[in-house]
Amino acid sequence: MNADSPHLYRLRGAIQGRDQYTLRAAIQQAARVEARGLAAVLTLRHLAHRTGAPYTYLREIVSRRRDAYHVFQIRRRSGRTPRVISSPDPTLMHVQRWMLAHILNHAPVHPAAYAYRRRLSISHCAARHLGANWLIKLDLHNFFHSIDERQVYAVFLRLGYASLPSFEMARLCTRQATPEFPNLGRFQPRPHRERIISDYTTTMLGYLPQGAPTSGALANIVAEPIDERLNAIADEHDLVYTRYADDITFSGLSPFDRRHAARIVRLARTAVHTTGFEVHDRKTHIVPPGARRIVLGLLVDGERLRLPRDTRARIDAHIYGAERFGLANHQTTRGFASLLGLIRYVDGLLAFAHDIDSQWASPRWQRWREVIIAQAPDMAPFRSVAAHR
User: Fold this and answer.
1) Half-sphere exposure of 90 (CA within 13 A, CB side)
2) Centroid of chain to Cα 336
């Protein structure tokens, strides 16, 4: 369907032998979502037409006959469990980016959620906690992998899409769980509810893959009940609440004490549990006055955000190491799997620093660019593999 012309849709539908009742229902369905600023998706074939993706390719993904993801791990510091990234192949990546741009970016999100939103950044989130002398920090355990395709299906339904395209778009935004998947019980389908088309029947439900363009926006929408409950706790106790993906922060001013903070943790844990998620207890921290107060890697103990000393030192060490010993040697010494991984990592650190303190970061970014330009002729072709950090 041409989103701007219901008349053309009627004419083409008539040529194809569609009855007027079906055509009228489709036009009304499109009008409902377009009134919300969302792109109309009437069928899987319609989505294929709008995105330019082959219909048979999309059908194979929806029926789970094709797993269109490349999976790799990113090692993390301090021996933590590696982060599993599922990167969609180029065609699915394009379709998911289309859905993000034309549908999910226009869906309402709770104002306390700051990640995966246009024109918002880590600094916007951390700035909400400036001047606080108490912090309570929690982490949602397996945030993306705790969200199943039924919850994603419910998102598209709430946005106004019909049942079948909601189901098909949910399948396109999720990846089927495998037998070794954690918390496997919740990904068992309910046969009497999940059978929409026999070809779509599967033995396992899908989950939100970390690495898909749509996962962040969908997670924000699914997590809205968490934000509502935790924001209500914050309001009741004169605290500020934010969530950046799986990072939850409460902040407050004295009078406040550790006993009160422990009560907030218990209330928050219960609230999160009632929404189907879990708090990662080992990552729960109460930060009292006098301790370093860091939110999302930024110091919030004054009237402006500041870079912690260890972040500055890490950036300086990477630049000096590359200047003194060469990028290739520095890559090996620091345990990066590729030069591209090293360069992307330091680029990310510098971009983060520049957002907070451009005067400090700008000359270092210039030195880093000069290193890369000077040593580029001697470098082997970059390999597109994950960096070991």
Assistant:
1) 1
2) 24
Sheet holding 134-139: strands in order across? 240-244, 247-252, 134-139, 285-287
Q: Reduced to 3 states, what is the DSSP secondary structure of residue 305?
A: coil
Task: Give the C-alpha separation, 67 to 189, whole Å.
Answer: 18
E runs forming strands in 218-368: 240-244, 247-252, 285-287, 294-295, 298-299
- Cβ contacts of residue 214 below 8 Å, gap of 6+? 96, 99, 100, 104, 173
Coil vs helix vs strand at 110: coil
pLDDT by residue for the chain (389 residues), tens only, comes to 445 577 777 777 777 777 777 778 778 888 889 999 999 999 999 999 999 999 999 999 999 999 999 987 766 555 556 677 899 999 999 999 999 999 999 999 999 999 999 999 999 999 999 999 999 999 999 999 999 999 999 999 999 999 999 999 999 999 998 766 666 667 777 655 545 677 888 888 999 999 999 999 999 999 999 999 999 999 999 999 999 999 999 999 988 889 999 999 999 999 999 999 999 999 999 999 999 999 999 999 989 999 999 999 999 999 999 999 999 999 999 988 788 888 989 999 999 999 999 999 999 999 999 999 998 776 655 443 333 33
Q: Which alpha helices (DSSP H) does 20-69 contain, by range? A: 20-34, 44-51, 55-62
What is the pTM for the complete model shown?
0.86
